[in-house]
């Protein structure tokens, strides 16, 4: 059982723990007829989301490592976070501060490989992902995958292999949406505590299996978010894809509960700050939390493994 205390998932790890990485086989995901990206473990039937051929930089880092990076980011501050309103599945945008947080998050992950991006269907998570990627040193272009209809898929095709190589598929999934806060959505958090009592509101906000009135409990949110992670995202990690997920406080709490194997008691004290990236290394079927990467300007203390350090070194050598 992972140990956890009531803290924000922020922190960095010395690069002293350098592991010897065995060879890594890059096996991309496959696009099904529905245009959804599925991945299976059988290598032969897999086609990369953009039929991407990994570039020299990406290939090299993967060849030397049996690990991939998983980055989790809670969206930057939203207009209703600023007003201290329960948001849930109401689709509100970022504040100016939230935009700045997203850009800063991008600076902190600018040297970490990203091959695929998953966001929720909500604009605050999608804005955060796109803004963060403006800072990435690899300068690949994140492109939202459209499969809401056959025409949407057909009209969003890219007809240049070279352009595809420089692209990152962005998959928006409602399953990663924030927990639905029911009749609390739009209410002020302080007024709600005054009306129902601090304890009752804390129970609605942080317990595992107690839903707000006509809303989702964290457990109900996990049933869709963690299921999606296991069915759609984990196969991509197994196939050698470095993945970034931009989502929400509670949908990410439910995923971290799975990654860190937290109990329903331990998850109560788990809080996520807006716009702070968290890095996991997925290696030999296990998730290793590596803390929150610091900006490239701060030397020495990184959540970097040998493989990630090699990727960063390739960027230093290859890019202006
Ligand atoms: O939905 C919301 O209001 C926020 O994203 C998270 O709210 P919480 O911190 O009360 O869970």
Automatic annotation (TrEMBL):
EC number: 5.4.2.11
GO molecular function: phosphoglycerate mutase activity
List of catalytic residues: 75, 178
Keyword terms: Glycolysis, Isomerase
Native source species: Spirodela intermedia
Name of the featured protein: phosphoglycerate mutase (2,3-diphosphoglycerate-dependent)
Annotated positions for site Transition state stabilizer: 248
Gene3D superfamilies: Phosphoglycerate mutase-like
One example of a Gene Ontology biological process annotation: glycolytic process
Matches recorded under SUPFAM superfamilies: Phosphoglycerate mutase-like
Residues noted as binding substrate in the record, renumbered to the chain: 74-81, 87-88, 124, 178-181, 189, 205-206, 249-250
NCBIfam families, sorted: PRK01112.1
Family the entry assigns: Belongs to the phosphoglycerate mutase family. BPG-dependent PGAM subfamily.
Pfam families to which the protein is assigned, alphabetical: His_Phos_1
